[in-house]
C-alpha cells in the first residue's frame, strides 16, 4: 500500500485495536477479538474485511520455530555488487528470490547494496550451499556475514502508536 492510500484512509481506534489484536494472534476468532476490542463478532468481521480490502493486512501466516525444525544457524549477510549501472541488481534480486534459506533481502544505501537474513541447518550448509551460491551470482563483488549468536528481540508486530494521533 502506498502512502497516498494510507493518508486517504481513515482508521478509528477500533480499527487500530483490531490490527493490534490480529498481529498478536491472527488465529483468534472474531468473537475473541471482539471481546478484546469491545465490538460484536459481526462488527469485527466487517471491519477486518474492510482492512483486508484496504491493503492494511497483507496475509496470515503461521510463524514456525526455526530451532525446533533443525534450522539452528542464522546469519546477516551484507552483499556488495561490482557495478551499479547494469543489470546486476535485477539479476541478483531474481536469483536471491529462488534461495529458500534467504528469508529477507533488503536493498539498502550505505556500505553494502543488500542485506540478507539467512537461516540454515548448520554452518556447513551456510558456507557450502548458500553463500557459495550467492557468490556465483553475476555481479556479486563481496559478501560479509555475521552469525547470530543470540536473538535478543524478534517481533512481527508493527508499532501502531502513531496511528492514534
Automatic annotation (TrEMBL):
SMART domains documented for this protein: HTH_ASNC
Pfam families: AsnC_trans_reg (PF01037), HTH_AsnC-type (PF13404)
Name of the protein this chain belongs to: Lrp/AsnC family transcriptional regulator
InterPro entries cross-referenced by the UniProt entry: AsnC-type_HTH_dom, Dimeric_a/b-barrel, Tscrpt_reg_AsnC-like, Tscrpt_reg_AsnC/Lrp_C, WH-like_DNA-bd_sf, WH_DNA-bd_sf
Region forming the signal peptide: none
Positions of the HTH asnC-type domain: 11-72
Keyword Lipid metabolism appears in the UniProt entry: no
Keywords: DNA-binding, Transcription, Transcription regulation
Amino acid at each position: 500500500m502506498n502512502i497516498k492510500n494510507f493518508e486517504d484512509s481513515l482508521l478509528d481506534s477500533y480499527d487500530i485495536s483490531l490490527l493490534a489484536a490480529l498481529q498478536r494472534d491472527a488465529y483468534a476468532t472474531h468473537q475473541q477479538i471482539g471481546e478484546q476490542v469491545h465490538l460484536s463478532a459481526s462488527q469485527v468481521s466487517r471491519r477486518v474485511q474492510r482492512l483486508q480490502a484496504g491493503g492494511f493486512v497483507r496475509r496470515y501466516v503461521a510463524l514456525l520455530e526455526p530451532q525446533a525444525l533443525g534450522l539452528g544457524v542464522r546469519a546477516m549477510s551484507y552483499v556488495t555488487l561490482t557495478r551499479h549501472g547494469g543489470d546486476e541488481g535485477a539479476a541478483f534480486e531474481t536469483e536471491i528470490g529462488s534461495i529458500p534459506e534467504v528469508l529477507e533481502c533488503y536493498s539498502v544505501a550505505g556500505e553494502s547494496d543488500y542485506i540478507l537474513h539467512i537461516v540454515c541447518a548448520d554452518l556447513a550448509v551456510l558456507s557450502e550451499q548458500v553463500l557459495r551460491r550467492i557468490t556465483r551470482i553475476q555481479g556479486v563483488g563481496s559478501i560479509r556475514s555475521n552469525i547470530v549468536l543470540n536473538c535478543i528481540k524478534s517481533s512481527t508486530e508493527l508499532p501502531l502508536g502513531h496511528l492514534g494521533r
